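User: For my dataset I need records formatted as: sequence, then C-alpha cells, nothing else. Please produce one.
Assistant:
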Amino acid sequence: MKKELITFHIGQCGVQSGLHFWEQLIYEHEIGPDGYSQVKYMNSEEVLEPFGFFNVMRDDRYVPRTIFVDTDPTTIEEAKNALLRSLFNPRCFFNGKEEAASNFARGRFILGADLIEPIIDRIRQEVEATDNCQGFIVNHSIGGGTGSGLTVRIMEHLTNEYCKAISIQFPIFPSEYLSTTVVDPYNAVLHCGFNVPNSNMTVMMDNSAIMGLLSRHLQIEKPTVVFLNRLIAQIQSNFFCGFHYNGDPICSTMEEVITNLIPFPELHYVYVRHAPIVAARRHDYQTHNNPPEDIVKAALKPQFNTLSADKYTRSKIITTVLSFRGVAAGWQRTLASTILQSKMNQSMNIVDWCPTGVKVAVHAVPPLKPVPESCITESPTNLTMIINGTVTTQRALQTINAQFNRLYERRCFVHWFVGEGMEEGEFTEASGAVREVIDQYKNAEMVEE
C-alpha cells in the first residue's frame, strides 16, 4: 500500500528550505526539474518510485504533493520563478499582500484570516487525491510572524479535520546568540504554547547549531542559508526515506514512527543527529567505508547535533530511533552489539523506566545522494538518529522561555501584539503551557524508587 504524505512550507524560512527539500528528492530519484523521470527503463525492478511525496499524472509526470504559504508575496514570487518552477502545481502557492512584520498575532489573526480559506480548500483537494494519506510534514521557523502565527492556524485546522493523520513539524528555533528580530522569543513561546495539542512530533533545530556543524565538518567559515537548507533537506530525506522510496518495509506507517518516539503526548519534542558528514573536497583522502558501529559512535557525540542545546552529556534519552540507509546485509547483529555496549558504558544514557527505548531501522533503500552543490560527498552508509531526550529538550525550551520572560516583565513590545487581536493574558497562558512541558521532561528524568 502506498504511504502518502503532504508537505507544508510556511513563511520565508519554510518556503526557502522547501525548495531545497524538493531539489534533494528529485536528485535522488533522478527526476528532472520539469517533473519527468530521467531513468531510461521505468519497468526495472531496481527503480523505487517516490509515491510517498509525489502525485503521478497521466503523462507520467511527478508533481510534488505540497503547499507553499507566505504572507509576503516576494518570497512566493521567488519560488514561482525558481529553477524548479515547472515541477510544482501552480495552485500550490499561496501568498498575502504584505508581510507579517515578525508578529505572531498578525500572522495568526489578521493576515491568516485572509489566507486560511483557500489553503483549507487546497488541503482538502490534496487529501482527496491520495489513496492513503499518512499525515503531514510542516517546515517553518517559529521566530517570524508567519512561521509562528499562521502555522498555528493551519495546524489547528489539520487537528480538527484530519485528527487521525499524523503531523510532524520541523521548526527552526531562534538561536540564543543568533537572532533576526528582538521579538523572536515572543513568537517562539506563543507558537509552542498554543501548538502543544496540535503537533504529534516536533523536530527541533536551530541555525546556530547547523552552522557549527557545517563549519566543523565542511570547513566552511561562514555558511550561507543555502548550505543550511541543503543540509536540512538531506536530514529530512534520510528521516523519511521509508516513505519516499515505495516498497521499503521499515517504518511502514507514520503511527509507527511516533509510537517508537513519543511516550506521552506532551513529550513530543525531539532532536536529530546526522552522520557521516564529509566534505566533497576530502573525498579522495578519506575513506567512506565506515562500518555502521563507527557511525553510531560518531552520532552519539554532540559534534553532529542540529540543536544548540544538544551539548549536555548528562541529558538522558527517553526514546531514540536510529535510521540507517545503505547498511549491508548481515550488519544487524553488529549493530545490536554496538548499541548494547553503548548502553553499558552510558554513552547512550537511557532513562531507567524505559530501558527498551531504542529502535533500529535499517532501510533497504540506496544511500543518501547529496546534491553536488551542497559540498557534501556521498557515503555508502548514512545514519539519522532521532532522540527524545530530557535535559536537552528542557534547555531548548527554557532558553526561549527565559528570553520571553525578560521581555514580558517590562511589557516590551506587547502593544504591537495586542493591537493585532491578541489579549495580554494569552502571553502568560502560552508561557505557562511551555513551563508545563518543561516540567513533564523533568519528571521523565526522575528515577522511580
